[in-house]
């Protein structure tokens, strides 16, 4: 199967408000796809459905050929869908290393007794996890802040740490919610390179929500546009650039502009 | 991109066993004082009087029971960040475990298991050390039972429901003389006389304070050990993550319900240890002792001492229970003696606690010995305020 994740006919209703309306979306293996749209289009809501935070009012989500629509959020995370947040949500009073170790929670096995007794097995497991955490911290470029509290890191480093934390879940799919928000053009450039490297070096597919069109256009293989909860366009960056409905959604109708 | 970190990075999570030495020395000193020094005939009567007035053996032991309980509550409140206002329930259950399994209460039964009483005595008589473990596990079970429905609630609502359970369970024991036809607690009369603790060389009666001090010190050490170990392990990290950001934790694969339940279970386990220990300390189980004030009192110990830091909690528990039990009345007697007044200081306990709480909230929100992490946050606001006022001044 070439799609690692397939969301079919997803609808989300909050009371009478239809935040997402019958959206079909799939994430191809080893590719970067983007979800864009004006504010309030339902992008983050859609993310929250994929990660199990909201249950869709209709539709199903298949991940790796398995129906995950009704799984609890922590289960979805542990089988390989990791995410970052629009507003960084690190564990501020935990060190960078601990942040990553928390994400490895579902992979680690030690229970209460083996932790209290510090059995050789538990110690080995911990030190292996610490090594892996250090590797990931180095990988995203915050390797020297291993023992620093996450809240003390700079904004950019916190963004990287959040990606590292998501990677610690060993995800097959990585969902990035506005990862370059608040970055300057040069920093976003570095980030674009990072995402490209990530996809080529690791067996990972990336889904991106992003407002920075330069970033979206340069990393995405495919772009999906949401507007008021509905999918209005899907295609390669070039197709999207020239799509009339997309331009309309972002800039408004020509007629209206005149009137 | 580089960060300028304010503090030199160091691994705050590294395990550290040095505390055992310091703890053992402090414990040994206490033991020598109370077991040998007080019984030494050459001891000047002044010192003897002073110790008995300010810190009698019973008060030290009782304080230690509070320390054990507070350490358990610290796991729930300090580590996992779940506000529990009904912790006294576990104390009561632990206490009644001692009452049931170490006394003649069930006179119609005759079960002995390495007990410390003659084999012909009626009732259930199980060895103290075993009852400790039984009490711990029964409480842990109740922790899970109470937690399963309530832990779905968040912060304030959780606090309210735990408050309810903290009232219900002691009330059940209070009115337990006829619990669907069974007498489970002897009601207000309580279960008097629990079995002495067998320690090999002798059986400890109610007045073997030195020995019991040693046992309570040991139990405290066990709780400290468990707290520190768990804190640095997989579970402790998950607790902390939930305290920090519940949603992010679940998005990182931490099962919220299960992890919270485990914190309840481990916390309740300590409650069971404390309950059994307390029953042997006062040589009985009395329903009216398990009241709401105890829950608040324990919570105050955790908060005043320093949430999340075992040493802070120990300090807080020791100081508060000492002030409450003996310190204030001793001070009152001293003051009245000296100035010829007649002030009932002990009646000012709650006034004093209220005052201390207000002062702490104003000047030392993080507690006496705060967790290194918390110190960081709670004073950040002050810096911001200072900055703002400085800017205004300009």
Strand-residue proportion of chain B: under 5%
Helix content of chain B: 55-70%
This entry's quaternary arrangement is: heterodimer
CATH fold node name of the largest domain in chain A? Rossmann fold
End-to-end C-alpha gap of chain B:
32 Å
Please name the CATH architecture of chain B.
Answer: Orthogonal Bundle
Query: How much of the polypeptide of chain A forms β-strand, as a percent range?
Result: 15-25%
Residue runs with pLDDT of under 50 for 5 or more positions of chain A = none
Give the mean pLDDT of chain B: 84
Overall tally of structural domains of chain B: 1
What's the CATH C level of chain B? Mainly Alpha
What's the CATH architecture name of the largest domain in chain A? Answer: 3-Layer(aba) Sandwich
Mean pLDDT of chain A: 89
Q: What is the radius of gyration of chain A?
A: 20 Å
How would a crystallographer describe the biggest sheet of chain A?
A: 6 strands, mixed
Distance between the termini of chain A: 50 Å
The top-level CATH class of the largest domain in chain A is: Alpha Beta
Could you explain how this protein is built, in words?
The complex is a heterodimer of chains A (259) and B (394). Chain A has 259 residues and is α/β, with parallel strands linked by helices. Chain A has two domains: 1-80 and 172-259, P-loop containing nucleotide triphosphate hydrolases (Rossmann fold, 3-Layer(aba) Sandwich); 90-170, no CATH class. Chain A has helices spanning 43-50, 73-79, 96-103, 112-117, 120-140, 155-167, 185-201, 213-219, 237-241, 244-251, 254-258; strands spanning 3-14, 17-28, 32-36, 58-63, 66-67, 81-83, 173-177, 205-209, 222-227, 230-235. Chain A has a six-stranded mixed sheet, with helices on both faces. In chain A, strands 2-1-4-5 form a four-stranded antiparallel sheet, with helices on one face. In chain A, helix 3 packs across helix 5, helix 3 (96-103) runs parallel beside helix 6 (155-167) and helix 5 crosses helix 6. Chain B is mainly alpha-helical and 394 residues long. The relative contact order of chain B is 0.15. In chain B, strand 5 and strand 6 (203-204) form a beta hairpin. Chain B has a single domain, classed as ABC transporter involved in vitamin B12 uptake, BtuC. At the A-B interface, helix 2, helix 3, helix 4 and helix 6 of A face helix 7, helix 8, helix 9, helix 10 and helix 14 of B.
């Amino acid at each position: 199967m070439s799609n690692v994740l397939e969301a079919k006919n997803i609808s989300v209703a909050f009371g009478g408000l239809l935040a997402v309306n019958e959206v079909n979306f799939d994430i191809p293996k080893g590719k970067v796809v983007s979800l864009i749209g004006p504010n309030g289009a339902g992008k983050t809501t859609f993310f929250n459905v994929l990660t199990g935070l909201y249950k869709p009012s209709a539709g199903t989500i298949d991940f790796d050929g398995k129906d995950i629509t009704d799984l609890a959020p922590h289960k979805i995370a542990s089988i390989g869908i990791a995410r970052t947040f629009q507003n960084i949500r690190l564990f501020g009073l935990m060190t960078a290393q601990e942040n990553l170790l928390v994400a490895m929670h579902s992979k680690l096995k030690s229970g209460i007794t083996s932790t209290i007794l510090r059995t050789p097995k538990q110690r080995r497991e911990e030190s292996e996890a610490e090594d892996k955490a250090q590797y990931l911290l180095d990988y995203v470029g915050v390797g020297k802040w291993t023992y620093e509290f996450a809240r003390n890191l700079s904004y950019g480093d916190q963004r990287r740490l959040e990606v590292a934390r998501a990677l610690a879940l060993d995800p097959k799919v990585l969902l990035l919610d506005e990862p370059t928000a608040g970055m300057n053009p040069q920093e976003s450039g570095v980030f674009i390179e990072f995402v490209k490297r990530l996809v080529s070096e690791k067996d990972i597919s990336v889904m991106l929500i992003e407002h920075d069109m330069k970033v979206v256009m340069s990393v995405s293989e495919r772009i999906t546009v949401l507007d008021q909860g509905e999918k209005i366009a899907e295609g390669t960056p070039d197709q999207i650039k020239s799509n009339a409905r997309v331009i309309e959604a972002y800039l408004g109708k020509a007629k209206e502009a005149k009137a | 991109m580089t960060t300028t970190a304010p503090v030199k990075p160091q691994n705050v999570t590294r395990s550290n066993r040095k505390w055992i030495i310091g703890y053992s020395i402090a414990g040994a000193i206490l033991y020598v004082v109370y077991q040998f020094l007080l019984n030494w005939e050459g001891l000047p009567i002044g010192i003897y009087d002073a110790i008995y007035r300010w810190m009698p053996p019973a008060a030290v032991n009782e304080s230690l029971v509070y320390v054990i309980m507070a350490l358990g509550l610290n796991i729930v409140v300090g580590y996992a960040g779940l506000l529990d206002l009904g912790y006294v329930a576990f104390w009561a259950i632990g206490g009644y475990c001692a009452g049931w399994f170490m006394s003649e209460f069930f006179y119609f039964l005759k079960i002995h298991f390495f007990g410390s009483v003659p084999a012909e005595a009626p009732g259930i008589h199980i060895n103290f050390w075993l009852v400790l473990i039984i009490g711990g596990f029964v409480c842990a079970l109740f922790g899970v039972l109470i937690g399963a429905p309530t832990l779905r609630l968040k912060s304030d609502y959780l606090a309210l429901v735990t408050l309810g359970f903290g009232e219900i369970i002691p009330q059940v024991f209070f009115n337990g003389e006829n619990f669907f036809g069974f007498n489970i607690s002897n009601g207000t009369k309580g279960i008097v006389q629990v079995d002495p603790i067998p320690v090999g060389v002798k059986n400890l009666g109610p007045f073997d304070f030195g020995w019991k001090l040693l046992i309570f010190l040991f139990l405290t050490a066990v709780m400290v050990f468990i707290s520190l170990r768990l804190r640095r392990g997989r579970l402790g990290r998950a607790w902390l993550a939930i305290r920090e950001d519940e949603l992010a934790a679940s998005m990182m694969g931490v099962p919220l319900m299960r992890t919270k339940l485990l914190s309840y279970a481990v916390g309740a386990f300590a409650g069971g240890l404390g309950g059994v220990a307390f029953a042997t300390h006062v040589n009985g189980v009395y329903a009216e002792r398990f009241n709401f004030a105890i829950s608040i009192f324990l919570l105050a110990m955790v908060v005043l001492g320093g949430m999340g830091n075992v040493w802070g909690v120990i300090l807080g528990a020791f100081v508060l229970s000492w002030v409450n039990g003996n310190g204030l009345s001793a001070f009152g007697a001293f003051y009245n003696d000296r100035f010829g007044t007649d002030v009932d200081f002990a009646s000012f306990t709650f006034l004093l606690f209220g005052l201390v709480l207000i002062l702490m909230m104003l000047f030392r929100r993080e507690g006496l010995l705060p967790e290194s992490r918390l110190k960081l946050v709670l004073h950040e606001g002050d810096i911001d305020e200072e900055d703002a006022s400085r800017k205004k001044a300009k």
